Amino acid sequence: MGRMRKQTADYFPHFTYKGRTLTVLENRWGSVGYTFWFKMLEILSSTEGHFYDCSKKTNMDYLAIMALTDVDTANEILTALADMGKIDAPLWNKRRIIWCQSLVDRLSFLYSKRTTDIPKKPLFDVEEQQEQEIEKLPDVPQDKPIKTEQKKERISKKEAEPKSQAPQKIKYAEFVSMTETEYQKLVDKYGEQKTAMFIEKLDNAKGAKGYKYKSDYRAILNWVVEKVQNELQRGGCENGGLNADRRYSEQPNFKPSGGFRKDG
Fold first, then answer.
1. Among 83, 111, 139, which residue terminates a domain?
2. How far apart are alpha carbons 185 and 178 in whole angstroms?
3. Residue 128 maps to a domain
4. CB-based contacts of 22-28 (< 8 A; 24+ apart in sequence)
5. Of 194, 197, 229, 238, which is most buried with the most CB atoms under 10 A?
6. How far is CA 234 from CA 189, 205, 229, in A?
7. Is residue 80's pLDDT more than 50?
8. pLDDT by residue (tens digit) across 42-57?
């Protein structure tokens, strides 16, 4: 059995300088404010997912005991931390959940050495996820702003739409794959001989230099066509040139490969 992938930390960076947070906490609550801040960070670090649920009375009692204070004072300090942006205000005000993004950011070095992903801010219902999706939607110019309900409806419709399957790509060379439609467009525009030269050029470049493209067809249009055309105009022999064009024309029965389909 493999090792369990945990989202906890046995330690966190403790900087020696006193910033705005500790200054405010100590000025208002004395040593209790200082103690509470670091006890809270210790608990968050050792808790799975690095968030702490204070909606459970036993959890809130435990936090207060560990911070050497009472529950009322702990609530006052946490509310102040939310106002200062040191803990996530919506999670605290709505859910009584403590989430400290700055702590998680400081622990990123630890997770960079693990196979476990660094924890993300917890979401507890579909509505919260939709609100995050709404923020990503582009603004649509119109006389009246889109209401939240309308944006949610757009998201629901988008998720309900069936996703069309991408056309199957065919392997025309060891490192070059395209759809039949893309290949035919090249043939219609440049002819079979030049299309074969384009494919060979891109195949050699990817094989020799490790190039990777999301679309080999677009790569051919972006630079391979121009490269091959220039070589043909110069009459050079580098990577084929006019000799390559002549080589194909001298073979009356030449026909580029139709690709290798992958069964299944």
1. 111
2. 11
3. no
4. 24/80, 24/84, 25/77, 25/80, 28/80
5. 197
6. 21, 20, 9
7. yes
8. 999 889 888 999 999 9
